[in-house]
Specification:
single chain, alpha/beta, Rossmann fold, N-(1-d-carboxylethyl)-l-norvaline Dehydrogenase, domain 2, eight-stranded mixed β-sheet, four-stranded mixed β-sheet, 12 strands, about 45% helix, globular
């Protein structure tokens, strides 16, 4: 299969390197010219929980030619208005577009590409971009995983073809409930990624703080309430039941839930949110495509989402230069810790 990784940032560089290492005909596509040049000249250097250099072929979007059998879409959703038309120009009726972004990207992609060609693969591993040609895998090998399904529901031939490619990097778990998978992953993004961005900290530092974990529990419960209003049934993640993990009640119930959440995040401790990485580089982040999705759906269905609302407010203020990310931002959530 002629394959493209559209958006060769932190995650895309790592996945592209593994696909090339497995012998796939793959092009890494990214608008960052210095990064593309480094990939072509020195190869993709993958560091962190692994360390190797893999020769790859990289291009900028303007150099795309012909038709791709599979496009693995890993660009930030903030670039959808540019990237989706570029993808559409280089696929045909038999092509597959696999969305691997945060949030619920399938809706925007299918509006242009069509439902039948879209499969979704929520990412169960983390990475940090270290500079042109270099990406850090922050998740331990045993914790790396994809989940995969079709937007139309059934596990079809497009899903199976995509699984064959993706599993050259890590295990790929199939499901006929892609939206359930997406909302489970959205909870992970809203909780740990949201608070990592607010506080400027790693995932391990979140797990280490009882106060932050109280907020994580409440953020996740709000997400579950909204998903239920939408008629979405959450899928387990690596065997963990998120209904159980974000069950709120008395002190003992909450403590049990928090311990499950901490177990879910074991192996991801060194990582930090991609939204935080974007803000550190002065870029716009995906807060509206992550916590903002929950807030918007909550308003539309009459479900209160006050902690997610505050995450969006604080991160937006950081993005606008009004706040700085850091542990002092916990003060904006004090009322949620008292109630």
């Amino acid at each position: 299969m002629r394959t493209a990784v559209m958006g060769a940032g932190s995650l895309g560089t790592i996945l592209g390197a593994y696909l090339a290492k497995s012998g796939y005909d793959v092009e890494l596509i990214d608008p960052y010219i210095e990064h593309v040049q480094a990939l072509n000249n020195q190869g993709a250097h993958i560091v962190g929980t692994v360390d190797f250099i893999q020769p790859v072929k990289a291009i900028v979007p303007e150099e795309m030619t012909g038709i791709y059998d599979l496009v693995i879409y890993m660009a930030k959703q903030t670039y959808n208005d540019v990237a989706i038309p570029q993808i559409a120009a280089h696929i045909d009726e038999s092509s597959i577009v696999c969305t691997c972004q945060n949030g619920i990207p399938e809706y925007a992609v299918s509006a242009v590409i069509g439902t039948e060609r879209v499969v979704g693969a929520p990412v169960g591993w983390g990475a940090t971009f270290r500079g042109p040609g270099v990406s850090e895998l922050t998740t331990t090998e045993k914790a790396n995983a994809f989940t995969l399904g079709s937007l139309s529901g059934p596990i079809n031939n497009r899903v199976l073809k995509t699984q064959e490619v993706l599993q050259s990097f890590c295990p790929v778990h199939l499901s006929d409930n892609l939206m359930g998978l997406r909302w489970t992953k959205l909870i992970m993004n809203c909780t740990y990624s949201g608070m990592s961005t607010v506080l400027g900290c790693t995932f391990g530092e979140i797990s280490a703080s009882d106060d932050v974990m109280t907020l994580v529990l409440r953020i996740g419960k709000e997400c579950i309430d909204v998903a239920s209003a939408l008629g979405i049934t959450l899928e387990p993640y690596e065997g963990y039941d998120f209904y159980e993990a974000h069950r709120c009640g008395d002190a003992s119930v909450n403590a049990a839930s928090v311990e499950i959440i901490r177990k879910i995040w074991e192996g991801h401790e060194p990582g930090e949110a991609s939204m935080l990485q974007d803000l550190k580089k002065g870029r716009r982040c995906e807060i509206n495509e992550i916590n903002g999705v929950v807030c918007k759906a909550g308003r539309e269905h009459g479900i209160p989402t006050p902690v997610n609302d505050m995450v969006v407010k604080v991160v937006t203020s950081i993005q606008n230069g009004e706040f700085s990310f850091g542990p002092d931002n916990l003060k904006y959530f004090s009322k949620f810790l008292e109630s």
